[in-house]
Design a protein that fits this description.
Layout lengths: L18 E3 L1 E3 L2 E3 L4 E6 L4 E7 L3 H18 L4 H17 L1 H12 L3 H21 L14 H7 L23 E6 L3 H14 L18 H16 L3 E5 L14 E5 L14 E7 L2 H9 L6 E4 L4 H8 L8 E4 L56
Parallel strand pairs: 1-5, 6-9, 8-9, 10-11
Antiparallel strand pairs: 2-3, 4-5, 7-8
Helix pairs in contact: 2-4, 3-4, 4-5
Protein name: Aldehyde dehydrogenase 7B4
Keywords: NAD, Oxidoreductase
GO molecular function, one term: aldehyde dehydrogenase (NAD+) activity
Length: 380
């Protein structure tokens, strides 16, 4: 049993055991569905078991949420915010353990695992402030909408997915880089050199920059993608491109020099693969960026103001996140996180994301002694 290992002892500090019910229903942990195992992607050994909720459990939970919502929405928003503050403090107290769990179960390096949990804590802090501002046109938010939902009256019903049962965090990325021909070879040589120096290994070990992909299926998908690239005349693998032989799901970070006409660059491989393409103009780069069906995040690196405003303007990137001189990661907690096109049109944060948790009413109150009619109608 993997749970008995010394490096897993911290799990008991956050309420986890060798066997865990997967649902918190009406104030109690329970589940009566099938049992699944969560594994460490570094060695594919079992960490713990989770009993999934059944349809009956799920429906019971929904009924409990509906009943709880009746009480919850009667609380003033600042009172709801106070409860969210307590949730944030509880997470803050266990930040290191929870971050370690994310790394253990998902393969993220420890800094990223802790960072994921810190975002939830930041969200709680932000939502507490929001709870005293629900008075009209406002701009709140963050990546984790549960906290926004709580201060906005809505009840939340959560169940773990079979692919990610005790950590509930997974991130995969596909990246393409377009380089102007004047700097193409110089930047590419530096990238290849840096990729060859990246330390791959146990995400919990200091100095590791790349951990394993999440599942064996992800590793197999990486292999299939690389095989497709090698079988065509589309591109050239400059570094990486192989699975690392081990008990875990480790693959090599890969750089592929490829033609923009290759269909594979429009498909999501979900692995550490960087496609590099040479471009002549900004317009060409924007056209390539916008030609793919995905539209989550994009970024341009430049010192020219005209390039910046072209990139972020109506004729620029069509992604949900449009960055300048920073990587393609998400924004600060007040910024909207989400994509366009096949990536979806919703937002998990920022802007107007709070509105989906509210019932909006337009209220018109007549304080006069006469009844005004629409369109200036007058009965005489």
């Amino acid at each position: 049993m993997g749970f008995a290992k010394k490096e897993y002892e911290f799990l008991s500090e956050i309420g986890l055991g060798p066997e865990n019910p997967g649902g918190f229903i009406n104030g109690n942990w329970k589940a009566s569905g099938p049992v699944i195992s969560t594994v460490n992607p570094s060695n594919n050994q079992q960490i713990a078991k989770v009993t999934e909720v059944s349809i009956e459990d799920y429906e019971e939970g929904l009924r409990a949420c509906n009943e709880a919502a009746k009480t919850w929405k009667s609380l003033p928003a600042p009172k709801r915010g106070e409860i969210v503050r307590q949730i944030g403090d509880a997470l803050r107290e266990k930040l290191q353990h929870l971050g370690r769990l994310v790394s253990l179960e998902m393969g993220k390096i420890l800094a990223e695992g802790i960072g994921e949990v810190q975002e939830v804590i930041d969200m709680c802090d932000y939502a507490v402030g929001l709870s005293r501002q629900l008075n009209g046109s406002i701009v709140p938010s963050e990546r984790w909408n549960a906290c926004i939902a709580l201060v906005c009256v809505m009840s939340e019903h959560k169940t773990g997915c079979t692919n990610n049962s005790i950590g509930t965090i997974a991130v995969t990325k596909l990246v393409a880089e377009y380089l102007h021909e004047s700097i193409y070879q110089s930047v590419l040589d530096q990238l290849v050199g840096l990729y060859k120096q990246v330390k791959i290994g146990d995400p919990l070990e200091k100095g590791t920059l790349v951990g394993p992909v999440h599942t064996q299926a992800s590793r197999e998908n990486f292999e299939k993608g690389i095989s497709t690239i090698k079988s065509q005349a589309w591109g050239k693998i400059l570094t990486g491109g192989s699975v690392i032989e081990s008990d875990g799901n480790f693959v090599q970070p890969t750089i592929v020099e490829i033609s923009s006409d290759a269909s594979v660059v429009k498909e999501e491989l979900f692995g550490p693969v960087l496609y590099v393409m040479k471009i002549k103009t900004l317009e060409e780069a924007i056209e390539l960026n916008n030609s793919v069906p995905q539209g989550l995040s994009s970024s341009v690196f430049t010192s020219k103001p005209e390039t910046i405003f072209k990139w972020i303007g109506p004729h620029g990137s069509d992604c949900g996140i449009v960055n300048v001189n920073i990587p393609t990661n998400g924004a600060e907690i007040g910024g909207a996180f989400g994509g366009e096109k096949a990536t979806g049109g919703g937002r998990e944060a920022g802007s107007d994301s709070w509105k989906q948790y509210m019932r909006r009413s337009t209220c018109t109150i007549n304080y006069g002694s006469e009844l005004p009619l629409a369109q200036g109608i007058n009965f005489g």
